[in-house]
Amino acid sequence: MHTVSGGEVAGILVAVFWAILVSFLAVALARLAQTLKATTKLVADVTDQAVPLLADASTAVRSAQTQIERVDAIASDVQEVTSNASALSTTVASTFGGPLVKVAAFGYGVRRAISGRKEDDVPAKSSRRTVIVGRTVSRGRGKKD
Fold first, then answer.
1. Quick one: which of 59, 63, 41 has its CA closest to 51?
2. How far apart are CA 110 and CA 104, in angstroms?
3. CB-based contacts of 101: which residues, under 8 Å, 6+ apart?
4. pTM (2 decimals)?
5. How far apart are CA 104 and CA 3, in angstroms?
6. HSE (CB half, 13 Å, CA atoms) of 48?
């Protein structure tokens, strides 16, 4: 019969310890490999979905740029129309404004002359009005009507 010495027992224990340690490391490496495979698959799926999204975003940005260019063109056209309308308004006011005021003043003078002859016996009204293009000013009270 063979007796087992203390060194042999220690050797067997060390061998068992190393076997258990290697088993744990093998399980850990297997799980790490599974995690890496899942991560690789996830990255591939995200890439497959991100590429069309980036293409759609690029198309949307191009469309927005086109719309901005159109709005800029419209805004410049509106500015040009506004400046033309202002110039036309100034031209009309200077062309027709003076003669219209003269015609209105002449008409007012004629009415006053005709009404003055009919009402020679009646005292003048307390509220006289002067016609200014666009508004009426009361002379007697100094207020606008």
1. 59
2. 10
3. 133
4. 0.39
5. 142
6. 6
Q: Is the dihedral of CA 86, 88, 94, 100 positive or negative?
A: negative
Tokens matching residue 15 = 């061998």
List per-residue pLDDT tens for the chain, 145 residues long.
677 788 899 999 999 999 999 999 999 999 999 999 999 999 999 989 988 899 999 999 999 999 999 999 999 999 999 999 998 888 887 777 777 778 888 888 888 888 876 655 455 555 566 656 655 555 554 444 4
**Residue type at 17?**
F
DSSP string spanning 24-93? Answer: HHHHHHHHHHHHHHHHHHHHHHHHHHHHHHHHHHHHHHHHHHHHHHHHHHHHHHHHHHHHHHHHHHHHHH
